[in-house]
Amino acid sequence: MLRSPSLRYIAFLFLVSGFSALIYQVVWQRTLFATFGIDSESVTVIVSLFMFGLGIGALAGGYLQQRFPRHLLRLFLLLEVGIGAFGLVSLELIWLVSAAAGDTTTRELVLWVYLILAIPTLMMGATLPILVAWLQGYLRNIGQSVGLLYAVNTIGSAIAAWCTVELLFVYLGQQATVLVAAACNFATAALIVHASRRLVREDLAAVEVAPLAVRTAPLLPYPLVAATLLAIGYISLSQEILWFRMLGFMTANRPDVFGLMLAAFLVGIAGGALHSRRACAPDGKPVDYLVRALFLAIAVFYLALPVVAATSAHLDKDVSTVVAYIAIAALAFFTGGILPMLMHLGIAEHGKDAARAMSWLYFANIAGATLGPLVTGFILLDLFSLEANIAILSALTALLLLALLAALPKERAYKLRAVALMALMAAGAWALHGGLYAGHLERLQFGKPDHPRFAYTHQNRSGIITVETDPRGDIMYGNGIYDGRYNLDLLRNSNRIDRTYMIASLHRKPARVLEIGLSTGSWAKVIADHRAVESLTIVEINRGYVDAMQRYPEIAGVLKDPKVRLHIDDGRRWLRDHPAEKFDLIVMNTTYYWRSNATNLLSVEFLELARQRLKPGGVIYYNATGSRDVVHTAAHVFKHVTLFSNFVAAGDAPFDLSYEERRTNLMQFGLVQDARHRAELERLASVPLLEVHDSISRRRELWKITDDNMAVEFKVR
Questions:
Q1: Is position 461 within any domain?
Q2: Are 199 and 188 in contact (CB under 8 A)?
Q3: How far apart, in whole angstroms, are the C-alpha atoms of residue 135 and residue 141?
Q4: CATH classification of the domain holding 525
Q5: Using an 8 Å Cβ cutoff, are 221 and 346 in contact?
Q6: What is the 3-class SS of 550-604, one letter each residue?
Q7: Same structural domain, 332 and 429
Q8: Does some domain include residue 465?
Q9: What GO molecular functions are on record for this protein (predicted)?
């Protein structure tokens, strides 16, 4: 496949380049999420701008390869050095820009994020057109050139996706991981310098010795190819978003899921790009390949969710996760060859002009991918369910195939057979859809074939909320995992609501309270009911929880309480953006410590931010979900730490309320109904709140959680 040593050498260097680029993407996105929030708006802006920067880079690369055709490898070298140099200071730059940004509107968020990502993504995007131009000197076949480089670069990215979440984040931190990526950039540049004489000599000679490709005229109109690649980019990135929604739901958002999903996706893309090179050969059948790939992509994507759900229900949830990754790789294999194939069909084979034309088509593909988070992630997922979005994307892919069939240079009988097959597939989907997708959320979440249907589901761009009927209080699940019960009864205590009542034992007068995370609203109702509470500020990232509350009017009424203010926002970002707000008590019924991005509310950096928002004698009270590392981290920020159940309370003043003070405070809850409730409150007043600061802080085997080490997500397993 690669007869020339120089081709193999450059292919390897581009693989290393892809390895470093994916590391940067994962680390920068995590850092930006911690800085600007993980709400749907911030995620959409960050992912879209990253893709947009790559697209602008593709155009820049197309210009540079045409402007400096005899210095292509030197251009690649300079780009790698530039990316590595930026990587060295990238995290510090993100922190500086975030500090300068402050409270931001959506428009300002776009500008600040692009200020950070513009230069590195431009350099990353420019590498492919430049190397395609170099490789054209050997192959004189744009489809094979793009297919080869796209494949090896994607293989590098796939390796990086796995290594980042399974090795680098486990044994290193974000800063050290970025240094690994920068080292790869500098190593690539050094290897180019080492072999520069031989490579540049072949670079100059390639144009003179390489044979011309047989075909010199495009088989498809260039505008049609550009429009198709725009659509393919949108469809592919949208499919990736829906894959992540499905995997996140069935795994309760494990932190390694995104990296493993990317690895599977990129392996499939690489395989498809390599496989497409055969069809781009002079004796290949590129049109047949394109039509077959789109047919198979539609079938795999539409059937994947029912197959994964059935596997989860009838075999095992772990097995179903593996099946999901296989389906992702299979779909990506079929779509991965479409980019080089369409470039082969739409670009005439003539040297540097082919590479320039390729850069515009690559830009169109990335522009379509940029629309994925904007249209599917931000709009369609807010309007339609996961199931409906799969149907929409499948139908859109089918319409794209119909449009291509009309333009492809094939005989009428071939097109009629393809249309008939498509009609048969559509009829089958219409007839079987209800049965295929029935109970898919229950099967994905519980892994049982006969689990009762959910009483209520709510899907929006922030995630999937499901509610299960239970006589001890309906159970809410957020993105596939327990997130609370609708219960206010202290005696029933099915949701350990006694932990909420304990706020009266932690602070003498909690007049101003901040609650991060609304969940069922049960906690908010109890807190607002305390007579000492003058104001309750609630910050909730997902508006769907507010909608779910409306089914429980005895709880939903808290949002109409004049002392309550609700903000739909990322909790950490809201704290950062409101430095003037000070609270006596900050309460967080935090999610499980091992879930993706849990670090954002458990790290030293967050606790130091929360400490700045506490009044003198203020307390932060939050769920450690069984992690001693969480308690250990609190002891490194605050002077006093105590525990109740699985909650940790921390502050700079001792927890020294007497029994009488605690009892008096506990009796201030308006929900206290009778003697049995008062007896339970008296029991809570007598529960010892032992100081654990010194003992827990001395435990060296525990992790101090930081934004950099992400210990609870990647190191404690």
A1: no
A2: no
A3: 9
A4: 3.40.50.150
A5: yes
A6: CCCHHHHHHHHCCCEEEEECCHHHHHHHCCCCCEEEEEECCCCCCCCCHHHHCCH
A7: yes
A8: no
A9: transferase activity
pLDDT along the chain (717 residues), means of 10: 64 89 93 82 83 91 86 89 94 85 71 86 90 68 70 92 95 96 94 69 47 58 92 95 95 94 94 83 80 95 97 94 97 91 76 72 92 92 96 97 90 93 95 95 94 96 96 96 95 95 96 97 97 97 96 96 96 93 97 95 97 97 97 98 97 96 93 84 94 95 96 85
Beta bridge partners of 538: 515, 566
Q: Do 400 and 498 have their domain in common?
A: no
Q: How many Cα atoms sit within 13 Å of 710 on the Cβ side?
A: 29
Distance of CA 290 to the CA centre of its chain: 30
Q: Does residue 496 share a domain with residue 407?
A: no
Q: Which of 437, 457, 478 is the last residue of a domain?
A: 437
Overall number of domains in the chain: 2
In a domain, 478, yes or no: no
State the number of CA atoms in the 13 A half-sphere of 88 facing the CB: 9
The CATH number of the domain holding residue 210 is 1.20.1250.20
d(CA 627, CA 633): 10
Neighbours of 603 (CB within 10 A): 25
Residue 460 lies in a domain: no
How far apart, in Å, are the Cα atoms of 374 and each of 125, 198, 247, 367, 662? Answer: 20, 46, 20, 11, 51
Count of alpha carbons within 13 Å of 429, Cβ hemisphere only?
21
Q: Which region, left, alpha or beta, applies to residue 140 given φ > 0 means left and ψ of -120 to 50 means alpha?
A: left
What are the tokens at 666?
């506990």
CB-count exposure of residue 172 (10 Å: 0-12, 13-18, 19+): middle
Which residue in 29, 33, 98 sits closest to 600, CA to CA? 33
Q: Is 240 in the same domain as 385?
A: yes
Phi, psi values for residue 631, rounded to 5°: -65, -45
Residue whose C-alpha is closest to residue 25's, from 51, 55, 44: 51
**Angle, helices 142-163/106-139, rounded to nearest 10 degrees:** 130
Please say which residue of 437, 466, 481 terminates a domain.
Answer: 437
- How is residue 20 written in tokens? 């470093």
Q: Read off the amino acid at residue 199.
A: L
Which of 623, 607, 619, 624 is CA-nearest to residue 702? 624
510 and 430 in a common domain = no
> Among 372, 348, 358, 324, which Cα is nearest to 44's?
372
Separation of alpha carbons 59 and 15, rounded Å: 21
Can you give the residue range of the structural domain that contains 661?
491-714
